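ESCALATION

Customer reports they have been waiting on this structure for their group meeting. Please prioritize. Original submission:
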Amino acid sequence: MESWCPANPSVFRNIDLHARYIDKIPSWMISLGNLRGLDLSMCRMGPEDMANLGRIPALTSLKLGTFYGRNGRIFIHGFRYLKYFNLKLWSCGTAVEFEEGSMPKLEVFELHFAAHTMECVSFGIQHLSALTKVDLFIDGTDDIKNEIHGLMETSLGKLRSRPTLSLDGDGGHSSQSDCVHFEELFKGLYQQEAANSDQHIPGSDYFPFLGRIVEENNQDAKSCLRLLEEEHEVHH
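Update from on-call: job pushed to the front of the queue and completed.
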């Protein structure tokens, strides 16, 4: 998508790409000055992707689905006029953080995720001062869902806007064994494709795509190790 750029960016009001996975947010999206609604599905969210999304000037509604954030983190900043945000995380292992001053007009936040231990959960919403409503959709046991609901309720109670909180989900049939970290998910897919590589459809780029994802995961792990090493040197 990066190589293509619309000839008349001002014509776009809404874009729906939720059924078409993209690998990055093209930089030309920043030029869509009249874009109000955006619906996207991505395999992985990198910091540059969130940066580009946050710079779309008139965006008020965003639906975003992804398996994971690079380095296990999605850091959100910008989005000056966003009022509605729907975020779907399809695997475990990603923390979501909102920079102070980000999404200053956000009123409704809908969050879909799986959580089978409390280690799966990390959402910093303390800076979303305009929130009026939060909807949680959790795949997990009743105990985990109730614990998350309590923690979220405490966090929201500290906001002056006093947003309402609702909880929905798939019921108490899930277990800890169902929780799949994004690294394990893609390595499993990679190994499955490798075993069946002789059955690939000519011209298919699915196998090299998975290979690239696994390599990115490896690079992410190396980056984390380097950061830990640098922090260790600073403190010693």
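Sent to customer with the following note: The mean pLDDT is 80.
Escalation resolved.
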